[in-house]
């Protein structure tokens, strides 16, 4: 069976990739607070260790999923967090940086990280375990960096920075833009319906020793996550609580995001945001988040009647972002930005998609 046939038969009916429900605008702090609450319920509930094959779509995965998963699996780890003798959290993560003195792992954050006595144990792919420490965390993005003091190199993930721009040019065939990652490339153009795979790691004790990799294939979707959070993207992968914090990869094994939890699907933070967050922390020792007071989405996600009017008035505007919300009293409102405005340039830089 070809990859396209597999997607249509098994993954396509599970999640309408181009369906995007309209929701009322909401303020960021309210949204992220609810997301954190859901993540805590999922990740801290017992029993924690449930494998991905709890869901039928994750059984008997195809060779394409296996190849991509095996390429990325050496960097995937299992994490255990303790407060005293009590386990507070168990999840997955992935290695993004490794030197002769330390290794850095990205995962999802937890409110339990705010306690001073949190202990971390990192289980890597070859079965070894190491003590780790929480280097940094951000409950806004629900992201954390874990450090291992280690004098040997560990396998690191290959990051594929997302490019989610799609032209609205009527003469252009969308399918031509799918899967535009070249070997050794650092960017990946993704469109709704593309195959993605959520990975996690799992300790299968007490049956036998070892740390098993788990894979959950699905499709990238234009739909917002359950809590309407603009920073998070959505895929139809079904994961369990121990997969939270693990990588979401493309069909080439490149990491495109950090998996979070959204009940019936998998919300994920794009690796673009996570990488910038970490680099900013390394440079400044803290994180800062810009706030412009507006919500935007990709131009191609706008209703067709709006796109028609845009093409009629501005035939050369084929990529960009469209304004969905302007917060009263914000800098965006002061600058004259209005609902349904299309932004194609910002600060002298061409803008083609939300992630830019």
TrEMBL record:
Family indicated by similarity = Belongs to the peptidase S1C family.
Originating species: Capsicum baccatum
PANTHER family xrefs: OS09G0436400 PROTEIN
Q: Which GO terms describe its molecular function?
A: serine-type endopeptidase activity
**What PROSITE patterns does the annotation carry?**
PDZ
Gene Ontology process terms (BP): proteolysis
Please state what the protein is called. Answer: PDZ domain-containing protein
Question: Which residue ranges does the record assign to the PDZ domain?
Answer: 320-356
